[in-house]
Structure formats: C-alpha cells, structure tokens
Amino acid sequence: MNDDTPVQTPPTGLITPADFTTFMRNYQDMVFSTAARLTGNDAQAEDISQEVFLKAYEHFDMLQTSPTAGGWLKTVATNLSLNHLSRYRNRWKFFSEYRRDDSAGESETPDVDFAAPDTFFSGVDADERRAWVEAALEKLPEHQRVPLVLYHFEDLPYEDIARKLGVSLAKVKTDILRARTALAAIIARSGAPHENFSA
User: Fold this and answer.
1) Using CA atoms, how far apart are residues 192 and 93, in angstroms rounded to an integer?
2) Taken in order 76, 81, 82, 86, is the CA torsion positive or negative?
3) What is the Cα–Cα distance from 86 to 1, expressed in whole angstroms?
4) Is residue 67 in some structural domain?
C-alpha cells in the first residue's frame, strides 16, 4: 500500500533559533557600540542591546531578508538609548537642576562643519582610533556626548538632532563644538597620538 501523504516541510518564513543567532552575531557589535556611545555605560548598553534584539525577533520575518536590517537596528538602538537617557534624567530631576549656562549666546554659534573624531589621530589604525574615541566619549557629560555621537557616528543632520533632543539648533551646534573641545583635552591627556583638532 502506497502512502501518498505529502512530506511536511517547515514554512519558508519559519524562524529558527539558528537563523536568529546568526542574525544577532552579525549585528550585535554595531548595536552595542551605538548604545554604548550614546549612554556612555557598557552595562546600560547591554540592556539596550537585549531590548533591540527582542524587538528584532518580533519583526524577524521581515528583517532576515531585508537589505536595510542594519539601518533598522541602528535606528531602534538610537531611539531606545535616547529614551533611556530621558528616563534617567527625569528620575533624578528632583535632586538636581538642569544646566542653563549653555543657553547664553547660542544665536551667535558659527555655522560650521565639524571633522569626525576619528580624524583626530595620526599614525594609528582604525581599531585603535575607535578604542581611543570610545573610551574618551564615556568621559564626556551626557549633554555633550549625545549630540556629538548623533552627528558624527549616526550621521544625523543638525535639524534631526535638535528635534530628537528637543533643543534649539544653535544649542546642538554649541554642544557639539564644546564636546569636540572636551574630547580633544581628554584624548590629549590620555597620551594618544593625535593631531591639533581642537580648533
């Protein structure tokens, strides 16, 4: 007696643990770096990375074949990091006042393009430059680090940064300029080989 029952095959869109594990391995460094640069804290970046990949799992049927999966993950990591920073500020708002001194003279901020932080160095390879920059970024105050990262590492224009952070365009430019100056001082003190990049 012939058994004509068709062989059951898994649906083509079925998510397997192996598929998602491979997907995570391909993008986990990028997601973690994005969160770490914005938060300045590795433990917080780990938590955010886990949340990013939980969201990715929910949309994996679309992401696993999407050529823009990396961009989607970076956007989610950026937004979750900014949300985390916002919640942290609100949690401690009772104990400290926001800084107001940055508002003075904002309208006179020059409209300039800033060189990326990884151009600060001379005679070192890309991995070493990245390590120096990321270590220095962790030492910047949040109000300087976040716009600098969004501008140089996430390639967001000034207008988008101002909108995401809820501040003026002039303040974004002021904070990026001050962040570069502070980053220059931190890197110089660290002993890294660098160019004159604070100008």
Assistant:
1) 36
2) positive
3) 69
4) yes
